[in-house]
Design goal:
three-stranded antiparallel sheet; D-Maltodextrin-Binding Protein, domain 2; 3 domains; Arc Repressor Mutant, subunit A; five-stranded mixed sheet; 13 helices
């Protein structure tokens, strides 16, 4: 990418600028992140475009979008920056108590709702200057978020993880059937009664068929999904005001169910457990700050 001919007149300060614009997808937001003016970021992007011979970022109604070349460059540039930061960190070790860095964590809202309260309490206690940004990340998009360095760490129930990442189980969970107290299903939690009820499904795409419907199909059963919503916290609120049933993570219901007046009942058919894994690029672990965050995630849950 930066050969001997280019390196002599290349400004390596442009690489953090590239990283910020890629992460924010917006020149103004990248400028705030870098403590620069938007015009300075735009000027730097123009210099970077000349250096790398590509537009890199194209304007959109909501900001900018990376070109194919920018996506291709994301990993090697992140690798370079992680190594440089590691070198700098050896001279000035990362100190969470004094740091004012910002980290990005990617997770579905179900795990974020369980993870963030204890994580925030711990960070306020031991690292009050550190800021967090939470992104809604699903299992199917987690690897792309990490490869592009949009997220520092993701937490998803991913089983097959490429070798370029480190990962660890932060907690295990399963699904229970959530409902209001006194719901007929909770009184008689049989498969027949379950299939005869109206259900709420959680799907970010709006697709009403979810994995539970596949489990029922294998039993020769089906159910009516009367409502589909895009996130779990909305599901909690709607369940409290209706006779709908929903399969929710046990951990989510344990932490927030009482606030909404909901109860959980074991499913009348086999439910597999799943593991929430913290995942980060191996190269990013050369950054002492990311390494610290990764370790913290396993301790607070």
């Amino acid at each position: 990418m930066l050969n001997d001919v280019h390196l002599g007149h290349a400004d390596l300060n442009l690489l953090p600028l590239f990283e910020a614009v890629l992460a924010e997808r917006h020149v103004g937001k990248a400028a705030r992140r870098l403590h620069l003016t938007p015009s300075a970021v735009s000027h730097g992007l123009n210099r970077l475009r000349l250096l790398l011979n590509d537009p890199l970022f194209l304007r959109t109604p909501k900001g900018v979008a990376p070109t194919a070349r920018a996506v291709e460059l994301a990993e090697p540039i992140a690798d370079i920056l992680a190594r440089v930061r590691r070198v700098v960190a050896t001279a000035e070790p990362f100190d969470p108590a004094r740091s004012e860095r910002r980290f990005t964590i990617g997770a579905p809202d179900a795990v974020a709702a369980v993870l963030m309260p204890p994580l925030l309490r711990e960070i306020q206690r031991i690292a009050p200057g550190i800021d967090l940004r939470l992104r809604h990340v699903l299992r199917d998009t987690a690897v792309a978020e990490l490869d592009s360095r949009i997220a520092d760490v993701v937490i998803v129930p991913l089983d097959e993880i490429p070798a370029r990442f480190v990962h660890k189980v932060v907690f295990e969970d399963d699904l229970v059937i959530a409902s209001r107290p006194g719901h007929p299903f909770a009184k008689t939690p049989t498969l027949d009664r379950y299939c005869g009820m109206n259900h709420l499904a959680i799907s970010i795409t709006g697709e009403s068929r979810v994995p539970i419907d596949d489990l029922l199909a294998r039993e020769g059963r089906s159910r009516r999904v009367a409502l589909t919503v895009p996130n779990f916290m909305l599901a909690l609120a709607l369940l409290a005001e209706s006779d709908l049933l929903a399969a929710l993570p046990r951990g989510l219901l344990a932490m927030h169910g009482a606030h909404f007046g909901l109860i959980g009942t074991p499913a009348p058919f086999p439910m597999r457990q799943f593991q929430w894994r913290a995942i980060a690029p191996k190269v990013a672990m050369m950054d002492a700050g990311v390494e610290w965050l990764y370790g913290l995630l396993g301790r607070v849950v």
